[in-house]
Amino acid sequence: MGKNKIIPYRKDLKLLARKLRNKSTLAEIFLWCELRNKQILGFQFHRQVPMLDYIVDFYCHELQLAIEIDGESHSIELIAINDANRQKRLEAEGVKFIRFDDLEVKQNMAVVINDIINWIEQQK
Q1: pTM beyond 0.85, yes or no
Q2: Contact of 55 with 83, CB cutoff 8 Å
Q3: CB of 105 closer than 8 Å to CB of 67
Q4: Which listed site, 18, 40, 80, 102, has its alpha carbon 20 to 30 Å from 29?
Q5: Domains of the chain, each with CATH number or no CATH
Q6: If DSSP codes are grouped into helix, strand and coil, which group holds residue 23?
């Protein structure tokens, strides 16, 4: 921990990331309320972070951890394949992923937060 590696990104994604932050899904809003202001073990997370050719839902630079919320569209085969390819490219840069289902975030926030805390504690 403590690496804070900055991953380069396409500059045109910065504006798109800003738009996505303003049009967050309900699950993203719920999770952001739990992640913001260093509420999870003192780690700072950011929303809609550009990396390479992609934007991840949430990212902690210090942990190199991306948290993704997958809605219904992620069950479509082509989108699932794109997600896997995207994750593989970002993992090659050192990014680690935790994925949650949209419904899980909306209905079981305590479990989601517990999973994130457990993941962080296992990194120590």
Answers
A1: yes
A2: no
A3: no
A4: 80
A5: 13-123 (3.40.960.10)
A6: coil
Q: Say how many residues make up the chain.
A: 124
CA 90 to chain centre: 12
Lookup: tokens for 22 = 């303003």
For residues 13 and 55, is the Cβ–Cβ distance under 8 A? yes
Tokens of 63: 């942990």
Walk across the sheet containing 65-70 and list its strands. Answer: 46-51, 54-60, 65-70, 96-101
What is the DSSP pairing of strand 65-70 with strand 96-101? parallel
Query: Rounded distance, CA 84 to CA 97, Å?
Result: 11
